[in-house]
Write a structure and sequence with these properties.
alpha+beta, Uridine Diphospho-n-acetylenolpyruvylglucosamine Reductase, domain 2, Uridine Diphospho-n-acetylenolpyruvylglucosamine Reductase, domain 3, 7-stranded antiparallel sheet, 5-stranded antiparallel sheet, 19% strand
């Protein structure tokens, strides 16, 4: 590299064989075998403030380069990084502020996007408030809010639905405060369009719920050793909820499986000797958020209680398992979602060499029962258990029915797609060698063929969320958002609108450092390849 970026107060790490570069460029991605050159930016700017960000954007424009933005977490197919002569802008240390000065009077909180989800929920607990979010504590707020922030969406909608305004540095090096009223197009595009493709998000102002406004909220988070019988009972309950047109929107439901043990509040609890023959554990989460004192009976918890007859690995743990018989503040319930989380693949299998991920989403609620989804899924899962020692990590997420707040929020000025999804399934298969890798790839393709399509229980169109991308066949096309847009966006009309906004705010594609950016990757000009 003949030229080096100047006027950066933060650290700049250039490509090479140094330990510093390897550590700075490495990140967790759970797709199929990620190509190593995807995590090989020409250099990484570890920005400390706005001036570092602006100088990086100015340098990229001057030298016809592109920038991939990393707020500190990860992307499932690695698209917060880049390769070739492009730049990774790491803002994980730049924007960590929290402003709760308007929480009591206006129910608003302003946060820097570099906060991890662990830090975000700690803020909520400290200030007795709740803002919807996902469960993986390692993600950071910037990418999380742009791709949705999904969990108990049926009750409140997603994290992005609660954005009142945001602060962003665009390709013209201007700092903009954006609201739905002041700049509706940019507000629409950033919240759901293509994470990191429209500028460098720095802060978000979010609408919060105070614990005192929801005094009768309850949750249940039991942990059990895995049995197929218990998992099937929970899935039957989730399908019943999905198909129930009268189910109230204040119900949330999540099921996760974890292999070998579980991480709770930063501590690792392995299987006991008495459970040595068990492949993995699972835990379920049921939540009812309510400002009113109504009976818990409006949401059935019988199937979850049935699992409590099994030996609970939660006994003796320091972090309390929440009981449905005791009212709990929303801030505590949401903190438990993150701390008691079984989907931490990188912690479960730090030595895995590759991952196979399959996402399944359905909008056709009635098909789940008519085409015997639970029975077919459990049968296929039993084949995996019988043929291999691999331990899948699976998460089942209930999105709701026609009463879902995620669906009702669809006209709020954001562009998040597939709001009418009722259930999401994520399957992760950690593999340690090529043989396991081939088996896992075949299994995911067979499961996909069984569940998706004309005769499957899931959607023919194979819809996906930008926050949960996957590559089924590990082809270049599957890493290309433009070519796969019919899966990620509700309509071609929406995609073309997002593309027009992209061309307006970033005409030279500064923020298009890989093919998961809307409109495709910026091509490095031949005369600047040696920059």
């Amino acid at each position: 590299m003949n030229h080096r970026i100047q006027n950066i107060d933060g650290n700049v790490v250039y490509r090479g064989h140094s330990t510093e570069y390897k550590e700075a460029s490495a990140q967790y991605a759970s797709c199929l075998n990620i190509r190593s050159n995807l995590f090989a930016p020409a250099f990484i700017v570890q920005a400390l403030h706005d001036t570092d960000v602006i100088n990086t954007v100015r340098y990229a424009k001057r030298h016809h380069l592109a920038i991939a933005i990393r707020t500190g977490g990860h992307h499932y197919i690695g698209m917060s990084s880049t390769g070739k002569q492009n730049i990774q802008l790491d803002v994980s240390l730049a924007y960590k502020t929290i402003d709760v000065s308007r929480l009591e009077t206006k129910r608003l909180v302003t946060c820097g996007i570099s906060l991890s989800l662990h830090e975000f929920v700690a803020m909520q607990r400290k200030n007795a408030c709740f803002i919807p979010h996902g469960t993986c504590g390692g993600v950071h707020l910037g990418g999380h809010v742009q791709s949705g922030g999904l969990l108990f969406t049926s009750m409140f909608g997603c994290l992005g639905d609660h954005v009142k305004s945001f602060r962003i540095i665009t390709a013209d090096q201007q700092i903009r405060k954006v609201t739905r009223r002041s700049c509706p197009d940019l507000f629409y595009a950033v919240l759901g369009g293509s994470p990191g493709a429209y500028g460098v998000l720095t802060h978000v102002t979010l609408r919060a719920y105070k614990d005192v406004d929801y005094p009768f909220s309850v949750g249940m988070n039991p942990l059990y050793p895995y049995t197929a019988r218990h998992l099937q009972a929970l899935l039957d309950l989730m399908v019943d909820w999905t198909c129930d047109p009268n189910l109230p929107k204040n119900a949330g439901f999540l099921i996760s499986t974890a292999a070998g043990g579980i991480a709770v509040d930063g501590r690792w609890y392995a299987k006991t000797e008495g459970e040595a023959k068990l492949r993995h554990h699972y835990f379920s989460q049921i939540l009812r958020a309510s400002p009113f004192n109504v009976s818990v009976g409006d949401v059935s918890m019988d199937a979850v209680r049935a699992g409590a007859q099994a030996l609970s690995i939660a006994r003796g743990l320091e972090y309390p398992i929440l009981s449905e018989s005791k009212y709990r503040p929303l801030s505590i319930l949401s903190e438990c979602d993150v701390k008691l989380h079984a989907m931490r693949e990188i912690e479960l299998y730090p030595g895995a060499t590759s991952w196979k991920r399959l996402m399944l989403n359905t909008k056709e609620r009635d098909l789940l029962k008519r085409r015997c989804f639970v029975e077919r899924f459990m049968k296929k899962l039993s084949e995996l258990d019988a043929q291999t020692e691999m331990k899948p990590i699976i998460q089942f997420m209930f999105f709701g029915n026609a009463n879902s707040q995620f669906l009702r929020n669809q006209n709020n000025g954001t562009s998040y797609s597939h709001r009418d999804v009722s259930m999401n399934i994520s399957i992760v298969l950690p593999t340690q060698n090529e043989t396991e890798g081939r088996f896992a790839e075949t299994f995911c393709q067979e499961m996909h063929a069984l569940m998706v399509g004309e005769h499957g229980a899931f959607d023919l169109d194979d819809v996906r969320f930008a926050s949960f991308p996957y590559a089924l066949h590990n082809t270049a096309e599957e890493y290309n958002l433009d070519r796969m847009r019919k899966h990620y966006f509700d309509s071609e009309r929406k995609y073309q609108k997002l593309l027009r906004i992209k061309r307006h705010v970033d005409p030279t594609k500064v923020f298009s450092a890989n093919n998961f950016a809307i409109g495709g990757m910026r091509r490095v000009k031949e005369q600047h390849k040696n920059v």
